[in-house]
Write the structure tokens for this entry.
Amino acid sequence: MTTTTRSVRREVNNVSGVSAPPMERCASNTSTFSFSQDICRICHCEGDAETPLIAPCYCAGSLRYVHQSCLQQWIKSSDTKTCELCKFNFIMHSKIKPFNKWEKLDMSGMERRKIACSVTFHVVAITCVVWSLYVLIERTTEEVQEGSLEWPFWTKLIVVAIGFTGGLVFMYVQCKMYVQLCKRWRAFNRVIYVQNAPEKGFCLECEDPEPHLTKPQHSSQKDQRSQGPQPETHVQH
């Protein structure tokens, strides 16, 4: 292995920040340094029937092949869709896992505590707002039926409208944050599949499906007639 190849592999591993999954680690160290077979450029292990190697870009040599799972982790961690060596845009399509197979969102303990406190506070606040509006509307209805309003009717109506509007705005702002969190969780459980790069020079639009039509022979005869009679050449003996 040359020094340039080692430095490029080290750069790819440093950028990705991803180590090889346990299932894809080499069974022996000898396969890592094997030059007779193709190896993954991230984990340096060979491919097999369960984890085959793909060629997602136009890198050549020992940097051509990579495991699908290794490349998926690299794309998630680096947040890029382009090979950093040959600058080829990966051909990808994504698929969401079934909900029963979703994994927990990767968050720190501080983030989990903040979310728990935020949810508790919002539940208590919404409960208080709804209960206050319910009591105010209930008492106003009783006073209207009895004909003895302690406050003017329009004053209570304005207070109810302000409280209801404030509650809706509060719920909208907080629900927006939770929607973003759900989108983040959904993106975390998205599986990205990378296809093999097409061969260089391959273009579907360049192919001509219709065969080239040959001109009929009589057209060439017409051209000869239009040119006139050809002068005869005499050969002297």
Notes: Confidence is low (pLDDT under 50) at residues 1-24, 28-34, 203-223, 233-237. The CA atoms of residues 118 and 174 lie 9 Å apart. Residues 109-190 form one domain. Strands lie at 53-54, 66-67, 92-96, 190-194.
